[in-house]
Design brief:
The protein has 323 residues and is mainly β. The protein has one domain: Methylamine Dehydrogenase, Chain H, CATH 2.130.10. Helix content is 4%, strand content 45%. The protein contains 1 helix and 24 strands. The chain has a 4-stranded antiparallel beta sheet with strand order 3-2-1-24, with no helix packed on it. A hairpin with a 6-residue loop joins strand 16 and strand 17. The relative contact order is 0.18.
């Protein structure tokens, strides 16, 4: 674990904020040295899909396809373990909806596997579950963070809105199980909140801000599964590592328009970077037909895409753990 962290941070220091080191752009092997699940928000077919990193992507291992309307433009997915339902998928869509999917019972099409859903509006871009209390937190780019809390942890149907926090450019949210704090990222900052209360009394309190540069719009938050001490964040002009304890921010990549960035326990990582190109004649210039993978040393290694020309918005490690 410590070796992977040193590799990440050393590479970050070499990269700098504007001109990445050549290491990040040197092509290495054409295949993954590790095997892990990758969950993608694929907006052309509007599906959450899971593939294996080590093989070409043809048939997904798991698919959830909710249709359109409030579920259009799926924007986030996380997988979490629950005592009552086993593994669930937390999903958000720019169409206005958020929800909890019973992963085991979900079919390819439709929303029948939803255990709960809400429509906060405001372009939901991220969703997270706070363990033990079962609360759901959604970040909406319209400028708000919404907290939903239950009357019983084992009954998602009892979730109700209990708190709304004004947060400019809210785009990402992640729970830090090391320190028991909920992180949000948006315009110019990331913020760590304490979690107080239980059930319907659950609240986010005592926000502590970390600057990511006033002109940068924070986009995603994700874990480094090779280092529990940091969170990985993307913003307008780069990818950064945030030390959970000291709040020190270190640049990992100095590249613009990275929508999500994840790191496996092996040290391999991957991102989705917006190309600015519209695919299939639609308006989505915020997507990419490929997911770019990096070796544990930080060099570009290989890409994965789909035969029909996917429109990937985010890609995350398929892992139920918070760290």
């Amino acid at each position: 674990m410590e070796m992977n962290r040193r590799t990440l941070i050393k590479s970050a220091l070499a990269v700098g904020a504007v001109t990445p080191a050549a290491l990040w752009f040197g092509e290495q092997s054409a295949e993954a040295s590790a095997s892990y699940g990758v969950a993608v928000c694929e907006q052309y077919r509007n599906q959450i899909q899971i593939y294996n990193s080590a093989t070409a992507w043809s048939k997904p291992q798991w698919v959830w396809a909710p249709g359109g309307g409030g579920w259009s433009n799926l924007s986030d997915v996380k997988f979490r373990s629950t005592a009552s339902f086993g593994e669930v998928a937390l999903v958000a869509a720019s169409g206005g909806n958020i929800g909890i999917v019973d992963k085991a019972s979900s079919g390819t099409q439709g929303t029948g596997s939803l255990l709960w859903h809400a429509s906060p509006g405001g372009n939901p871009h991220a969703i997270e579950r706070i363990p033990d209390v079962g609360a759901i937190v959604a970040a909406c780019t319209g400028g708000a963070v919404h907290v939903y809390a239950p009357t019983a942890v084992s009954r998602p149907s009892t979730l109700a809105l209990v708190q709304t926090i004004s947060y400019a450019g809210a785009h990402g949210v992640w729970y830090d199980d090391v320190h028991g704090r909920l992180w949000v990222i948006g315009q110019g900052r990331a913020t760590s909140y304490a979690v107080s209360g239980t059930y319907r009394a659950t609240r986010l309190t005592g926000g502590v801000d970390v600057s990511i540069g006033a002109s940068n719009l924070g986009h995603s938050l994700d874990a480094s599964y090779s280092d529990r001490d940091i969170l990985l964040a993307t913003h307008t002009t780069g990818v950064v590592a945030i030390d959970k304890a000291t709040h020190k921010v270190t640049t990992v990549h100095g590249n613009h328009a990275v929508k999500s960035f994840s790191q496996d326990v092996s040290g391999e990582s991957f991102w989705v970077q917006a190309t600015g190109v519209k695919y299939h004649g639609d308006s989505r210039d915020w997507v990419n037909p490929d997911v770019q993978f990096f070796s544990s040393a930080g060099a570009k290694s290989f890409t994965r895409g789909l035969s029909y020309g996917a429109e990937f918005y985010k890609a995350r490690l398929h892992n139920v753990n918070f760290h």
